[in-house]
Amino acid sequence: MEVLSRLPEEWKAPEGRWLTLELKNEAAVNAALENKFAGFMDDEKKQTARVAAHAKKIRTVIIVTCLGVFIVCLAALIYLLIHRNPFRQ
Predict the structure, then answer these.
(1) Confidence of residue 14 (pLDDT cuts 50, 70, 90)
(2) Separation CA 65–CA 39 (nearest Å)
(3) What is the pLDDT of residue 35?
(4) How many domains, the chain?
C-alpha cells in the first residue's frame, strides 16, 4: 500500500486491483546519493581550503610588492630632499 500512496492524485482511484513492480530500490538509491553527497561535500571543502590558501599567497605577494614600491619611493624622496632640496637656499 505504500507504493500506492505515492501515486499521483489522478491515479489514486480505489477501483481495481493494482499490481506493482519495484524497478529500483529507493533505499539503496538514497544511500548511494548520501554517500556521493558526503564525498562531494568533502571535495568542496578541500577545494575551498586550496582556494583560500592560494588567495592568502597572492595577498602576501601583493603586500610585499606594495611595501617594496613604498620603500623605493621613500628612498627616492629622501634622496631628492637631501641632494635637490628646493627649500634650501
Answers:
(1) low
(2) 39
(3) 80
(4) 1
